[in-house]
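Need residues for this backbone.
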């Protein structure tokens, strides 16, 4: 007769960092993940009140959550973001979502400081966050393993002519980063995937100085309407979940056909 094996210890809660969690897709994702039992660090750059609202909504759903101000282009801020997450437990997830478009127009008319900011936030910021996540999550380095989801854009393959080709280039960089890092960490317990939204109803368009862009470009979307942040969040959550256990290096387009 075999000895009964000891009862498995209760699995600990996933601990997930969401950058740009104060608004839009990041806020919807944070609340969706809270519903699924993730403890959360909600990163923000300037929207403290909005981030605190997201944290309150997450806590109402029964998880632990904290808002942390962190500019994703500042390595010390990125360290602080992950240090706050480590206070909740071993970090098992990252949603590298913070991004902006900042300006609309032809590249020739786009000021260099805007180009630099867009490349910094949308590409360097993601590189710094996934780099830190790899350091703390990698099993070979003593971490628990886990999953990273980067937030790309359909712009990465469409190019966004006359709007922001430099943003599209940054997002194409995010896709390459995702594919490469997925291979680097594939035997290390960490999956890396991207979600590429199309046109989504958030404040990003007003942030680029054109609140009417959403209505103007909706006709380009084959499904005939923009997406809602709550329609992007489940794709991100699925890629973070064990249901996606064999999925790494994928770029999942959630774009209404765009
Ligand atoms: P959003 O509503 O404007 O929210 C952007 C978030 O990013 C905010 O939480 C903002 O924080 C944060 N953020 C911006 N710069 C940051 C920085 N330097 N450091 C840290 N956080 C920073 O935008 P969204 O539409 O939800 O966009 C989320 C992601 O989806 C972005 O990567 C975007 O490129 C991508 N995306 C969006 C669309 C779309 O149509 N909306 C389409 C494709 C891809 P604060 O508010 O605190 O400054």
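Answer:
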């Amino acid at each position: 007769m075999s000895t009964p094996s000891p009862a498995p210890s209760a699995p600990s809660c996933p601990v997930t960092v969401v950058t740009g969690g104060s608004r839009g897709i990041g806020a919807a994702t944070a609340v969706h993940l809270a519903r699924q039992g993730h403890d959360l660090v909600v990163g923000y750059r300037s929207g403290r009140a909005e981030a605190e609202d997201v944290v309150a909504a997450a806590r109402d759903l029964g998880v632990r959550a904290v808002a942390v101000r962190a500019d994703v282009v500042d390595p010390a801020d990125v360290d602080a973001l992950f240090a706050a997450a480590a206070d909740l437990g071993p970090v098992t997830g990252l949603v590298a979502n913070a991004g902006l478009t900042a300006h609309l127009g032809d590249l020739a008319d786009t000021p260099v400081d805007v180009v630099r900011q867009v490349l910094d936030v949308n590409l360097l910021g993601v590189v710094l966050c996934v780099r830190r996540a790899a350091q703390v999550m990698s099993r070979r380095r003593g971490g628990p393993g886990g999953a990273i989801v980067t937030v790309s854009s359909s712009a990465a393959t469409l190019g966004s002519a006359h709007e922001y080709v430099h943003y599209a280039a940054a997002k194409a960089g995010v896709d390459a980063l995702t594919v490469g890092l997925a291979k680097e960490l594939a035997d290390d317990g960490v999956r890396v995937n991207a979600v590429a939204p199309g046109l989504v109803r958030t404040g990003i368009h007003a942030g680029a100085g054109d609140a009417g862009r959403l209505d103007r470009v909706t006709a380009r979307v084959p499904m005939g309407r923009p997406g809602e942040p709550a329609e992007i969040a489940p794709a991100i959550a699925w890629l973070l979940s064990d249901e996606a256990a064999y999925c790494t290096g994928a770029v999942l387009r959630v774009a209404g056909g765009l």
